[in-house]
Amino acid sequence: MTMNRETILNIILAVLLIAVPLIAQAMDEPFIITLATKVAIFGMAGVGLNIALGYGGLVSFGHAAFFGIGGYAAGILASHALNYEPIMSTPFEINGTTQMIVIWVVALIASAVIALLIGAITLRTSGVYFIMITLAFAQMIYYFAISWPAYGGEDGLSIYVRNSFPGLNTLDPLSFFGLCAVMLGIVLAFSAVLIRSRFGLALQGARQNGQRMMAVGIAPFRVRLVAFVISAMITAWAGALYADLNRFVSPSMMSWHMSGEIMVFVILGGVGRLFGPVAGAALYIMLEHLLGSTFEFWQLPLGILLLVVVLFARGGLIGLLAGERKHA
Amino acid sequence: MPEAILSLSKVTKQFGALLASDNVSLDLMPGEIHALIGPNGAGKSTLIKQIAGEIKPDSGEIRFAGRDIGELDAVERSRMGLARTFQVSSLMPEFSVLQNVVLAQQSVSGKIFRFFKPVLSDASLLEPAMAQLERVGLADRAQMRAADISHGERRQLEMAVALALKPRAFLLDEPMAGMGPEGSKNLTDFLGGLRAEAPILLVEHDMDAVFALADRISVLVYGRIIATGTVDEIRGNDDVKRAYLGEEA
């Protein structure tokens, strides 16, 4: 089987993402490793959004809520464990934990439940209304976090020691990067499989023509709702990792700026392209780092770039380098 | 007499001052092609939409396969075996021709929520889908994007998708629209053989096709059925000549 250009490009991107922190380690540049970890985590958040936005055509402007739910799952569980305070003591005792695996499971379940509720309401609308109502829900959750003093309110929550993963020193930057990269790999593989499955075909059909879907006897609503939930879970998983990267979680993870940023990763990299969010997150963070250190208004060139992409390169970075998308 | 597979009784639909369906009653019997003709704006497509469940009648009853389907939506009616084609082709433009049929095929299989197995290596979907494409003569276009095939081929693809649903009745809304003479003739031959599989309610402007195919014809004018009968009866009907055929001639 011959590989198409997009597959080759994806492999190059994956190799670069792994090579850069390894070289940084050799050159004793831990900050670069942190940047690469950020790319992996933001890429993962974008892979989540891409399932809704790219494959399902659901422009969610509220994915920061799920990113933040993942973050708070890490923060809340860790703070209870580190302070030796049970989360609840009656009728039975539930304790916090510093085990990432448990935190992830909690993050996935919590985000799934909330996405199911939000999706069940928002997916009855479409277009601009869907964008606005997802934003409204995210803002509700954002203000809830701000006004919840038990978990730091506006100031957020610190995680004094990064949570642990069996057999790994998560405090070592390169090890933590490796963990994040593996998780990114898992969600990328899942996303690639999902989109070729029966469900993936139905989801892409629902994006293209709802009338035709109903005529062949498939309710687009159910397909979109399941996609929305899966999408939210992946973004929440990334959020849990992000809290551990910063050892800090605050309501700003849930702000509409964050929703916009996740959307920018997807659009910059290429909507509906497997590695699009990773390419977009990498470009974004490079711009932020390179321009941000020399130029106070670094978001101005970013804005112009985004405008150029939307107007002239709909396939984003991946589309520019690998050509138009082949049908799935 | 056998029971009708589809029967409308006193279906009425009003849009503001416009009476789109005025007490429409009609039957589709097993094994028949029942053509619905009428001038533009007579309410033919509106009637199809009400049967398919896309819009709700104001009053009247629609029965399908022995059941009142008034409360069912378009998805449920399709799943009951009512397959419709659209007057203006309504397909998945970014999908390949084959994927368009596979989507219908997987709906029939009832298994949509499968997340891991690649759909395009699933022989239980691909083989029947290819068989439908062969029936309508589109097998050599299977890998092309639906947006890139010709208008006539899109009409054929609409038919293949409807066939894949293995329906108990077809609702065909102007299947010949925009087809060349040869395409129309091929489709006419094809539909003639299809009535044995499932009866067809056929909305069509191409009178050659209607007279060649129809077992019965109903004439719709201003939302009202003014006559129902065999081809010869309709040809000889003075009201129909005045209201419709006369105008065309």
From TrEMBL, chain A:
Task: Give the domain of life.
Answer: Bacteria
List GO terms (cellular component aspect): plasma membrane
Membrane-spanning intervals of the chain? 7-24, 30-51, 58-81, 101-121, 128-151, 174-195, 221-242, 262-285, 297-322
Q: How does it sit in the membrane?
A: Multi-pass membrane protein
- What GO MF annotations does this protein's record show? branched-chain amino acid transmembrane transporter activity
The record ties this protein, via InterPro entries, to: ABC_transp_permease, LivM-like
Q: This protein is called what?
A: ABC transporter permease
Automatic annotation (TrEMBL), chain B:
Q: What Gene Ontology cellular component terms go with this record?
A: plasma membrane
User: Per its UniProt record, what PROSITE patterns does this chain match?
Assistant: ABC_TRANSPORTER_2
Q: Name one GO molecular function term.
A: ATP hydrolysis activity
Please report the stretch or stretches of sequence annotated as the ABC transporter domain: 6-247
Q: Which Pfam families match?
A: ABC_tran, BCA_ABC_TP_C
What keywords are assigned to this protein?
Answer: ATP-binding, Nucleotide-binding, Transport
Q: What is this protein called?
A: Branched-chain amino acid ABC transporter substrate-binding protein
What SUPFAM superfamilies does this protein's entry cite?
P-loop containing nucleoside triphosphate hydrolases
Q: Which domain of life is it from?
A: Bacteria
